[in-house]
Amino acid sequence: MNFSDIRVLYWREIRSALRDRTIVTNSILLPMLLYPVMIWLVYTGITFISGQNEELKSRIMLKDLPAAHLRLKREIEIDKAVELLNPTDPSTAVRDGSLDAFVEFLPAKAELAMPANFSVRITYDESRDASDRAMNRVWDKITAYRGSYLEQEASRLGLSKADFQNFAIDERSVSSDRAVSAFIVVLPIFFIIMLAVGGMHPAIDATAGERENSTWETVMTAATSRANVLVAKYLYVATMAFIAAFLNLFAMIFSMGTVLAPLFGNSSSLRIPLESAPVVLIGAVLLALFVAAGMMILASFARNYKEGQSLISPFYIALIMPVLFLQAPGVEFTWRVALIPVANVMMMIREAFQGVYHWQSIGITLAVETACIVVALRIAMMVISHEDFVMGSYTGSFSKFARERLFKK
Amino acid sequence: MNAPVVVRNLKKVFYDEGRGEVKAVDSINFECREGEVFGLLGANGAGKTTTLRMLSTILTPTAGTATLMGNDVVSNPQGVRKNLGFYSATTALYPRLTTRETIDFFARINQYPADQVEQRVEYLIQRFGLTKYADARIEKLSSGMKQKVSIARTIAHNPSILIFDEPTVGLDVLNALDVVDSIRELRDEGKTIIFSTHIMSEAERLCDRIAIIHGGHILACDTLAALRESTQQHYLEDIFVLFVKAGQEMV
Amino acid sequence: MNWSVLRLLFIHEMKMLLRARRTVVTAIVLPALIMPLMLYAQKYSSSRRERVLTGTTYRYTITGPLADRIRNLIQQAREGLNNDTSEEFEQLRQFKFVEMTIANARQSLDNDAIHFYIETISGVEADKIPPKVDTAPRGPVARRNLPPKRLAGVPLINVVYRGDRDASSAARGRILSLLRIARRNDSESQLVARGFPGDPKQLFSVEDTSLATHGQVTGSAVGRFITLFLVMMMFTGGAVASMDIISGEKERGTLETLLTTAVGRSEIVAAKQLAITSVALVITLMQGLNFLLYIRLRMIELPQDFDLQLSTGMALTLLLLFVPLAATIASVLLMISAYAKSYKESQMYFFPVYLLSMIPSLASLMPGVSLRSAIAFVPLANVSVAAREIMIGRPDAVMIGVTFAVMVLTAAYLMRASARMLTREDLVVPAHFEAAEFLGGPALFQKRVLRWFALMWVIVFAVATNVQALASFQRQLIFNELVVMLGSSLLMLWIYRLNPIEVLSLKPVKPAVWLAILFLIPTGHLTALGIFQIVNVVIPAPQEMLQRFSEDVIPRGMPTWQLLMYIAVLPAICEELLFRGILLSGLKRRLRPAALVVVVGIIFGLFHVSLYRIAPTAALGMVLTVIAIMTGSVFPGMVMHAGNNALGVLGGDWLNPDALQFGHYAAGMAIFALSLWVIYRNRTPLQK
Prior knowledge:
- The structure holds three protein chains of three kinds.
- By secondary structure, chain A is α/β, with parallel strands linked by helices.
- Chain A has two domains: 273 residues, no CATH class; 109 residues, D-Maltodextrin-Binding Protein, domain 2.
- Chain A has 16 helices and five strands.
- A four-stranded mixed beta sheet of chain A has the order 2-1-3-4, sandwiched between helices.
- In chain A, helix 7 packs antiparallel against helix 9, helix 7 runs antiparallel to helix 11 and helix 7 runs antiparallel to helix 13.
- The longest helix of chain A has 39 residues.
- Chain A is elongated, with a radius of gyration of 32 Å.
- The radius of gyration of chain B is 19 Å and the shape is globular.
- Chain B has two domains: 170 residues, Rossmann fold (3-Layer(aba) Sandwich), CATH 3.40.50; 57 residues, no CATH class.
- Chain B is an alpha/beta fold.
- Helices cover 37% and strands 27% of the residues of chain B.
- In chain B, strand 4 and strand 5 form a beta hairpin.
- Chain B has a six-stranded mixed beta sheet, sandwiched between helices. Chain B has a four-stranded antiparallel beta sheet with strand order 2-1-4-5.
- Chain C folds into three domains: 228 residues, no CATH class; 116 residues, D-Maltodextrin-Binding Protein, domain 2; 239 residues, no CATH class.
- Chain C contains 26 helices and five strands.
- A four-stranded mixed beta sheet of chain C has the order 2-1-3-4, sandwiched between helices.
- Chain C is mostly helical.
- The interface between A and C is large, with 120 and 129 residues.
- Strand 4 of chain A pairs parallel with strand 5 of chain C, so a sheet runs across the interface.
């Protein structure tokens, strides 16, 4: 292998790619532009709708509220979001939508010595959002009222507020928040998908695309070996896939930061341990190399871009399947899992994020992935050296190719 | 001194699902000398394209040898390509490179000494009148311009042997004449040129010796004058038809 | 429209589609294989998860001075639960946990030796801990009942866990519930011990009954997702046909052949549209049937009480809405194909368009959306909301009619746009020689200018939401105005070798113009406020947002002159140079003056990201653009812009919308119009 030849070939590929609108758009511009635009749209939509909703009040009817608890009534009345109505047939009103919640105060169920007790029945319509909201509002108000009533009683009986509160209960996570950690689990899957998406176009372009453009023979008659040409193309595809995946990843993390934070409200921070960086990086590179190899082999069978795409799609899916299965929690990174390509790298990365390192499995993973890559490259070499492929008499049928190689001669 | 191109008993057999064994090229022999334009004339399917592809190492011969500048196509294909400039309808240019980048790339990849590449590129740009378009992308050029760039890139590494497979296809009269002139210039510089075409007038004007190939065999290989003498025909077209018909009868 | 020709073309299109074997396979076979696998993977994951979580015995420890007390309380609560047979606490009863004796709780938690630990802190110690920063979300995602604040001296019980571990998180939820129950029991027993009559648990009990039938509840749930599902299916199904239908033909050269026949453009487009729609509908139907099959095979578990009741009336109404939806989607796909020069390119446009189209379909997922509002005018979103309301059984006839009309108009408009695209010569025959690319410089600038603005918008938005360091008022302004806007202007001038005076319109104007500007400043501001009020009626802004907005924009405690510098002068200069200088020059050759004003105005508005500011800002932008066009200079615009912003800062009370009446607005607008007329009379004709 002549490294300066490979370098010349590689840079030609990269240069052409960076001037290709499709590649630049898909792999670079899209991640940078699309996610912010989408987030902005979602955000605008939410503010728009909440603006609409503010005007809507909960229409509630209170029946037979006992005189001893007028304070409760006042608290409900004061709420600007509540409108008290008095229809003649409240149940029908709830059903047809003109009333959101019908609140009946009834005598207490249990035989109690508590003089001022009552029980409440709220009738509402679960299928209507407004009704559901009204029901929750009433429930919350009664719960709050109960709390303050008990507090009063407690003071009356000589129990201070602090004593009555007893103790406060709170929680503390010493690692990334659950939502964020779920996000971390999703990241490797996302990365693989982006690798496949980002690498697909360059892979097809570098093989089927060249045949479409008739530039294949031009490079085949150059004074460099087939191996050099192939390696240069391969590195090019891997590079583009890697760049696309990383850009998408960062764009997503940035955008998701804005979405996750307000929705979850906790001080969630993405605590990815820095020590995991080398392992993660190696994993990412291996994945890129593997995905690139697979795609190149498949795309080599195509005569034009469209065919290339339809050949690669199954690979795409085959890539993602094992990954999905391994999402089940409690799956350990055993040596068995380490033998499955792609899935092993994913587990490796995920565990690195969590600060766990199973060195034996990691070792097996590296070996397996490297072996797969070498095998894939060998196969690719075989394919492009085959004359049918070069001459264009190859009709794009994989089965025919396989038959010829295996059964003739 | 051995001739730059020596072909001995070159044979190529394809396996086709429908037709079985197909002898595309059946034991052909010829030689090309320095500073000559060697014309290869033949109908579609005659074996012309296959022969040229074997010479350029894209296809491997089933039997026989082809030696270019002392390098055998089977044992040293890279050496062959180093001394060869191959041009065909199926060798297009990279659309997104500029003119300069294209010539530069091909010079380098064909092992032209790296320190002299820049000079060579400038020289070629001047020679073919590409100065104004030196930094324009190939996809933006007209077909005449693209043609010139194609020839420039073919000789970018200053090979001794050139193969032109139907270089004037799709060009208008003026552009085609330009190409023919360029080839003549290259011949005068001492290159060995194998030239294939359908257009008889071009072959008449340009070729020093002509080989007629049909059904995988070479039916004739001589200067135009000698061919005219032996067939008693003036126009190359008539000569060609005569040989082909005779060849068919032989089969 | 010649119907027999249309039929001929349609059959021709379908024939070509169905003969591409590979297309058919990838469109139908592949999804039919993937879906079951994914569903199965999902099911496997969740059932495995269930098993793991219920089977585990959680290990924990209790630290701190109150450990014994808490231990007892937990024990009592557990016993109490075991005696209580109500279903509510079933999950909690199955929660198995065992206490361990551990030296270092935190370390054990990190090592995974324990799943969580309870840290008890005495009241005195707890008082010393600084309060947590309130990161509660502001805005639409409301939260129910926040826990009451801890009073001074009250001990604190903390459950410490690891959020990134499934088991730990699951345990945390349950132990918290248990602790709350324990606390309540304890407090209540204290009350009773002091003489509280009765059982505090029975105080003010609440029960709720829903009058909704199962059918309605199911309808509500299904209705939320049905539009999204359909949009996704139709897009991916239709894409199979549409990618190739025009762009592929362009590549192969057959489009030109078709265009030279005696068939009209509208028939060609209609036939292609029909082809896409048919394929989309067929594939959607197949996917739907697949779905039903999966339900039958138990691959998808339906919740209990799932009772889908679709009356004929409902089904018909839904169909009424989904047909224009399908037509719209087909039109969008057709437009992509018409615009792209090759199959590859149409692929490139498909993905973002697909994602962006899914967003409006999510409208029905938002709580409390009603069709009877401005949303009926937003395509896709309106169908989404309408479908849900129909499936609940509360169709709003009038608004459904509006929805239908909007969708039909959208589909028709897109179809016409596609037809027009077929006549654009540079699309049918890919251009070989684009002078702009060759010459570089100003010609290239005009082509690229919009891309620059898109990039700038993204940068401003992305940085504003993500980079904490720039969160302060001054820094954000300096970044946006100086770095992004002014910086880009200078960059573009340099890269495209533009003439600054020409492009930035740095020219003098007639004196009368300045006088007019003086009047335009207050009246323009008034007009903008008026527009804001009008918009507020249709798209009401949430109160909280308005409040927060005015707080954010004008920070307190800054000297007035500094405020004016930041809010009035800086933006005026930078934004005018960018929008009325660069953008206007870049677009003026491509658009008619009317379109130019609108486009520049809207882009200007979009840069002020929030929905409610867009309208008045865009209006201001349009006025400024008009002035720039009429006077051929950015300077009057700068002054007006600065004046307008200054008024916003200083105006304060007497420009309060509540204080103004219609009369004020009317007078303002009259003077406004007059001033513009003065400028018009003193205009400098625009050189092209």
